[in-house]
Amino acid sequence: MTVLARTLAVARYLTADVARSQRFLLPLLAHGAVLAVLFGGDPGPPPGPWAASALAVYPAAAWLAVVVANTEAAEQRAVTIASAGGPSRVTAATLLVALVGGLVLAALSVLVPALVSRYPYPPPVLLAGALAHVACAATGTALGLLVARPVVARIGWSFCIGVAVVMVTAVQPWLPPVGSAVEALVSGGLPLVEAALGVGLVVAAGLVSWAREIRTT
Amino acid sequence: MGVRLAGVRKSYRRREVLAGIDLELAPGRPVVVVGGNGTGKSTLLRVAAGASAATAGSVTGRPGAVGFVPGRVPASTRMPARAYLWHMAAVHGTRHDPTALLDDLGFSGDLDAPVARLSTGNVQKILLAQALGCGAGLVVLDEPWSGLDAAAAAALDRLLVEAASTTALLVADHTGRAAALPGAAVFRIVAGVLAEAVDLPGAVHTVVELRCPGDPAELLRVLPGVRESWLGAGSLTVRVPVERGDGLLAAALARGCSVLAVRRDGARP
């Protein structure tokens, strides 16, 4: 119980720190702009337009995860880890905040067209759209955690590696979870496996991050 | 109960900073690490605090929360001091209110201003409050007196005397204040391992000012008994226990140094 409470305490602290830094605004506004362009005019019936927004949420969630993972200065990170009794809670909290941030972006992408467009959005279509966006957002979160501190210390490299990975993986329709989730969405399937795989990737990225956390300092 | 470091080693790339540290930290026996810059004090403290993993060896018995003040003040804490302390107490998993300590330390800044906008001394007080005020079972402080004025430094002395009796305490300090804590064990790190710093509080020293040819770092390695050294413009000042004074002078002269001044130094403050 206290284990969970203290992890959540770190998560609250990180959220407050990220909120004050305002660095979360850039990925949020960038993604908002993409949604405005995609769904502003006549986007057409679902699930077609979601293919683009699901692909867009992938790098946006990665960016947000980098912001969350890099929010603390290195010296403060040491204080937080010592106070939390080790790196596990800090890594878990970082993962949690980044994942929730990515899921907020995913929720916006799913709900904005459903609310503003004149096309019907029956529940099965909404579910498929939500799963595809969860798959893409979670994969983005995993990627962001892998290219941010403590795995990749310098933001220039984070950017280069992140962009390269997104460019290569987003355009392969056969490649799970992002490519195949979008493919399943437009062909009327239910990308359940992809969503689960995305969340699995986040956990794996968290483990890598945890293993690196106190070894690089 | 107590925290045990056994055979702790730490390497960065290929450079070994800690080469087998054995140390026991327990309430009532504060451990003080003294010595020059770059000898590995901060590294040892980070490993003991759990903020850095040892390359080899083990740290056992570390409590679930450690109060830690790093050597360098965190660069950008955007949070107001009050919110920062509240969050840190929650991360420690305690109901203690660390802001109570701020009055003792003579905090004079605005608690609702971002930590980064406070003066160096006040930031140090915030860090000390979160480390000492959350009831942690182990407190690790890296140069805790840095940036504090005389009144705050004296207040910290009192707080540490109090804390040392109930919690395990590890301090890196070059001011000599920590060595005066009751029951303190004082060590230096020499070539990556702990060496007893034999000077008792109140020991008398000889301070010698030298002008020497060549690299002072190399010279310091061969001069016997040096406890502390300062590099000035064209001069090197060293402090040795009185009984080592003659040996030091002989060694310095043999290395081609000239003696600029010799004076007696009482107990360090």
From TrEMBL, chain A:
The chain crosses the membrane at residues 24-41, 47-69, 90-112, 124-148, 155-175, 195-211. The keyword Transmembrane applies. This is ABC-2 type transport system permease protein. Keywords: Membrane, Transmembrane, Transmembrane helix. It comes from the Bacteria.
UniProtKB/TrEMBL annotation, chain B:
The keyword rRNA-binding does not apply. Keywords: ATP-binding, Nucleotide-binding, Transport. Pfam families: ABC_tran. SMART domains: AAA. GO terms for molecular function: ATP binding. Coiled coil: none annotated. It comes from the Bacteria. InterPro entries: AAA+_ATPase, ABC_transporter-like_ATP-bd, ABC_Transporter_VariousFunc, P-loop_NTPase. Residues 3-216 form the ABC transporter domain. The keyword Transit peptide does not apply. PANTHER family: ABC TRANSPORTER ATP-BINDING PROTEIN ALBC-RELATED. This is ABC transporter ATP-binding protein.
